[in-house]
């Protein structure tokens, strides 16, 4: 099973440039069996989602469509019971995914089952079978691995969708109540009264009377993480100073 | 339907004499005003160019009403969002004219973030004979002034000036995709991916949020708003379309926040056509009310549909724009063309609809005769006053002379934006950085 030669499609993929007269590429010329078609679409989807973040003009619309397509394919694959795969998060690169993270309950990979999902190109990767030794033709694909869990989906789509908000940074300080940035930090020790801060996302208090909404833009997870990790660093330094 | 072509290449950059297309010159929106006298275009560089139709002259009847440049101005500038390290594009996404109420013209133009109201007015007189300054503007020495005179208005060369009158900003977290002026002529709405805001044209520091589809958890986001428009006559009614192929009609009298629709238009999916790309190609890229207000037109990747406002279950008419692309969706997905957003327009009497395609082709569908035609907007085929020849795409098998095969289509030449004169058969077609204006043949 699975002795088919690697398809040359992926090498072709990267020769189409923008601004060049584009012909309809030969993606459809080869009639692929359904699982391989699906694999190709999945790979493209992941590529595009990754590139989304790096584009000069990120588009929420495009990301939502890509994420929906990805979810649809993943659900289909899950339903077909293809669980013999190493899962991995969408973000950072994983050259060695031999130990599935976050999924201790997965059954071991049967070696005769050709993993339909792309795996990273790493010589020490134990699950690569001969048939999956795909040439990725100079691409940057090592970082792209599909994720199988809903949690992973959720976290990655949050990373995706959280970054699309436009802020008016020129009037950032004047427009926004600064409390919003720190509302997640527990300061219950210090608060003497029940000061309410604007909840995030901004409530629609009776709808029409609201002024413009610009409060949601600053509280993306990314900026919060930065604030919190800075605080952790300080604590760490304090520990060292104190204990010495 | 034969058309005489009065083609014009408008090069927005006056400094360049080369003929290549630069990014900034790419036309991103085209719109006639309500009388058809003016035609506005916006481009990726944030500029607006307004054309005015010449008065028809008896001496040269064949040069009826050509459009000439009337005013050019920089509407939006690029901005930088320091927090996200993202540039906010100056590209003009939409232009909408206000109805004319006095000698000046007003239009709304928007980029991803900010809507601006521009006043375009003519000046053909200037005051002369000031007492305290001379004609060059230099202040006169009061000691030399011996008489008092009243300044008078003297004619001068016509000058057209554009001034920004209102700036509506800080109301959109996501990218604005539509603006629509209400028939009450007092309010307008601006729409981004997740929210629709209502503004009063006079008030810039406050807007009302009328639709909000942002989920509490962004992880649950599966649908965005793609376009919205006010009903042409009922000032309380508007529609918005979604990336899932549905249209919602809302009545602002029902509640302040119109999250509950009054009508929901969606066609059930055809199971035989299902593919990985079904959802992407069902995303609606444009929605337009007919002039009568009885019908709605939507454009998705492969079709244009006409809906009757009284029938929510399925469209009244469906027109295939370029069905030969259905078998090429994977490639179009790969090269990103599947995400292209085509617009669609009605003619003045709502009998013909028009939309763009690839290879600089655009299509017209006659709703009454059910005939359709494919035309091409290209310089080679459009000498002034030449008649446009219908084009045909050959799908498979033998290719006749003059036909073009699907594999030879140029997907970088796409016609996304077109406009139709409100009364006459004059159309404006934007092909990348070129604007073509076609008129009906004169007998």
Automatic annotation (TrEMBL), chain B:
Keywords, comma-separated and alphabetical: Repeat, WD repeat
GO MF entries: protein phosphatase regulator activity
InterPro entries in the cross-refs: PP2A_PR55, PP2A_PR55_CS, WD40/YVTN_repeat-like_dom_sf, WD40_repeat_dom_sf, WD40_rpt
A GO cellular-component term linked to this record: protein phosphatase type 2A complex
Subunit structure: PP2A consists of a common heterodimeric core enzyme, composed of a 36 kDa catalytic subunit (subunit C) and a 65 kDa constant regulatory subunit (PR65 or subunit A), that associates with a variety of regulatory subunits.
PANTHER family (alphabetical): PROTEIN PHOSPHATASE PP2A REGULATORY SUBUNIT B
Name of the molecule in the record: Serine/threonine-protein phosphatase 2A 55 kDa regulatory subunit B
């Amino acid at each position: 099973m699975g002795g088919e030669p690697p398809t040359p499609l992926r090498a072709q993929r990267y020769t189409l440039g923008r601004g060049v007269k584009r012909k309809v590429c030969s993606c459809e010329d080869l009639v692929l069996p359904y699982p391989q078609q699906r694999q190709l679409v999945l790979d493209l989807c992941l590529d595009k989602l990754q590139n989304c973040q790096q584009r000069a003009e990120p588009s929420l619309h495009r990301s939502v469509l890509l994420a929906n397509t990805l979810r649809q394919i993943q659900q289909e694959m899950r339903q077909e019971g293809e669980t013999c795969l190493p899962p991995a998060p969408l973000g950072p690169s994983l050259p060695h995914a031999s130990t599935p993270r976050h999924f201790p309950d997965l059954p071991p990979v049967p070696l005769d089952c050709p993993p339909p999902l792309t795996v990273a190109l790493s010589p020490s990767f134990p699950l690569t079978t001969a048939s999956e030794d795909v040439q990725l033709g100079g691409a940057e694909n090592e970082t792209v691995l599909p994720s199988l869990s809903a949690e992973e989906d959720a976290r990655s789509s949050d990373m995706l969708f959280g970054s699309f908000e436009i802020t008016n940074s020129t009037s950032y300080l004047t427009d926004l109540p600064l409390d919003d940035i720190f509302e997640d930090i527990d300061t219950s020790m210090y608060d003497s009264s029940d000061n309410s801060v604007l909840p995030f996302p901004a409530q629609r208090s009776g709808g029409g009377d609201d002024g413009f909404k610009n409060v949601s833009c600053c509280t993306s997870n990314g900026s919060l993480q930065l604030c919190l990790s800075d605080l952790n660093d300080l604590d760490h330094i304090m520990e060292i100073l104190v204990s010495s | 339907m034969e058309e005489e072509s009065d083609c014009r290449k408008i090069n927005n950059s006056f400094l360049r004499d080369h003929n290549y297309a630069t990014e900034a010159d790419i036309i991103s929106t085209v719109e006639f005003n309500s009388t058809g006298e003016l035609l506005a275009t916006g481009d990726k560089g944030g500029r607006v160019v307004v054309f005015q139709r010449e008065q028809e002259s008896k001496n040269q009847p064949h040069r009826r009403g050509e459009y000439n440049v009337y005013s050019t101005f920089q509407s939006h500038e690029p901005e930088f969002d320091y927090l996200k390290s993202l540039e906010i594009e100056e590209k003009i996404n939409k232009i909408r004219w206000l109805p004319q109420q006095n000698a000046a013209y007003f239009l709304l133009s928007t980029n991803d973030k900010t809507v601006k109201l521009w006043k375009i007015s003519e000046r053909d007189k200037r005051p002369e004979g000031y007492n305290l300054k001379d004609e060059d503007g230099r202040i006169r020495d009061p000691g030399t002034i011996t008489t008092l005179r009243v300044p008078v208005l003297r004619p001068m060369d016509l000058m057209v000036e554009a001034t920004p009158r209102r700036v509506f900003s800080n109301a959109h977290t996501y990218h604005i995709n539509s603006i629509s002026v209400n028939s009450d002529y007092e309010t307008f709405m601006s729409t981004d991916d997740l929210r629709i805001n209502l503004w009063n044209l006079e008030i810039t520091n406050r807007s009302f949020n009328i639709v909000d589809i942002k989920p509490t958890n962004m992880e649950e986001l599966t649908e965005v708003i793609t376009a919205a428009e006010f009903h042409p006559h009922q000032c309380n009614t508007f529609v918005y379309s979604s990336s899932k192929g549905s249209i919602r009609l809302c009545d602002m009298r029902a509640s302040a926040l119109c999250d509950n629709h009054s009508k929901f238009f969606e066609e059930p999916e055809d199971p035989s056509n299902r593919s990985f790309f079904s959802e992407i190609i069902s995303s609606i890229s444009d929605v337009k009310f007919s002039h009568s207000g009885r019908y709605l037109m939507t454009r998705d990747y492969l079709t244009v549909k006409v809906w009757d406002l009284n029938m929510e279950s399925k469209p009244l008419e469906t027109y295939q724009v370029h069905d030969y692309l259905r078998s090429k969706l994977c490639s179009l997905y790969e090269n990103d063309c599947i995400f292209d957003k085509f617009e669609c327009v009605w003619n003045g009497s709502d009998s013909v609809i028009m939309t763009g395609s690839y290879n600089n082709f655009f299509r017209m569908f006659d709703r009454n005769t059910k005939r359709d035609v494919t035309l091409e907007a290209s310089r080679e085929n459009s000498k002034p006053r030449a008649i446009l020849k219908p084009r045909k795409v050959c799908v498979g098998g033998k290719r006749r002379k003059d036909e073009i095969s699907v594999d030879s289509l140029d997907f970088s030449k796409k016609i996304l934006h077109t406009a139709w004169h409100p009364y006459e058969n004059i159309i404006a077609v934007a092909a990348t950085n070129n604007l073509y204006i076609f008129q009906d043949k004169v007998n």
